[in-house]
Amino acid sequence: MSNATTLSAQTIRPEEAAHFGKLAADWWDPKGQSAMLHKLNPVRLGFIRAAIDTHFAADPRGLRPLAGKRALDVGCGAGLLAEPLHRMGAAVTAVDAAAENIAAARAHAEGAGLTIDYRHGELAELGLAGFDLVTSMEVIEHVADKPAFVAALAQTLGQGGLMVLSTPNRTPASRVLMVEAAERLGMVPRGTHHWDDFITPIELHDLLEAAGLKMGNPQGIAWGPAKGLHLSDDLALNYIVTVTRA
User: Which residues are listed for S-adenosyl-L-methionine binding in this entry (predicted)?
Assistant: First the structure.
C-alpha cells in the first residue's frame, strides 16, 4: 500500500472487522460491551481539542474550532468520535471496515440530526484526500499491514493538516492490564486485543517517518483508581500523538 494503485484490502483483517461488527448493536450503550470506549472517549477528545486549538490557532473557548474544515475519522466504529468532530464544526467523513458499524453510525447520526459522510471499506481504495484533520483511534493495532495503513493515512492528510493517532503500547503492563485483566473481567470484549500487534512509540515514529510524517511527543493515557482514565506522562498502557507532514 505504498501508493493508491498497489494498496489492497489486505490491510483489513476479516476476523477483526467481524469482531467489531458484532459489537455494533450496542456500541452507543455506555454500559454495554463498548463501555470502556465511552470512558476513553472524553480523554481522547480533551487531547484532540487541545491539539486543534494549538495547530489551527483556534480560540479555546470557541464551540466550533473546526468550522470550515474537513475531518476524517478512520476506523470510526459507530461514530463515537465522528459526532463530536461534527459538533466542533467540521465536515466529517468517517470510514470503517465493518459494514455493521457503518450502519449503526448512520442510524445514530440520523437520529441526532447530524450529517456525516460514512463510508465502508478499505481506506486506500476510497480515494480520500485533502483533509485538515485526520484521526484514527485504537486502529493501527488491528490492521494486518501497518506500513501500508500508515501510507494510506498519509495520503488523506492535506497540506498544513493535523493527524491524531492513539494506540496501546506493547509493554508488560499493557499485556497484564489491557489484555489479560480487562478481557477476563469483562471490561472489554474477549478477542479485542492481541498484544503482539501493539506497537511502541519508537516503532510508530519510524512507521510515520517512512511515510513522510512527523510525530509529536506522545502523551500517555493512564488509569488510576482515583482519576480513572486520564492523560499522563506514563506511556505504559496507551498513548496518543499528534502527527504532521515532515
Answer: 44, 75, 96, 137
Q: Is 13 part of any domain?
A: yes
In angstroms, the CA 86 to CA 103 distance is 18
Q: Is 44 annotated as a binding residue?
A: yes
* Full residue range of the structural domain in which residue 68 is found: 9-245
- Tell how strand 117-120 and strand 91-96 pair up: parallel
d(CA 228, CA 231): 10
Number of domains within the chain: 1
What local confidence, expressed as pLDDT, does residue 2 receive?
Answer: 32
Which regions in the chain score pLDDT beneath 70? 1-25, 33-34, 179-193
Does residue 223 contact residue 176 with C-beta atoms inside 8 Å?
no
CA-wise closest residue to 238 among 184, 170, 142, 185: 170
Among positive and negative, which fits the CA dihedral 81, 101, 122, 95? negative
Cell 484532540, residue?
48
* In a domain? residue 44: yes
Residue 187 annotated in ligand binding = no
Q: What contacts 33, CB < 8 A, 6 or more positions away?
A: 23, 26, 188, 189
Question: The CATH number of the domain where 23 resides is what?
Answer: 3.40.50.150
Comparing CA positions, the residue from 110, 20, 81, 93 lying closest to residue 240 is 81
How far is CA 90 from its chain centroid? 16
Whole-angstrom Cα distance, residue 21 to residue 100?
Answer: 5
pTM: 0.86
Domain assignment of residue 47, yes or no: yes
* Residue-level pLDDT at 173: 87
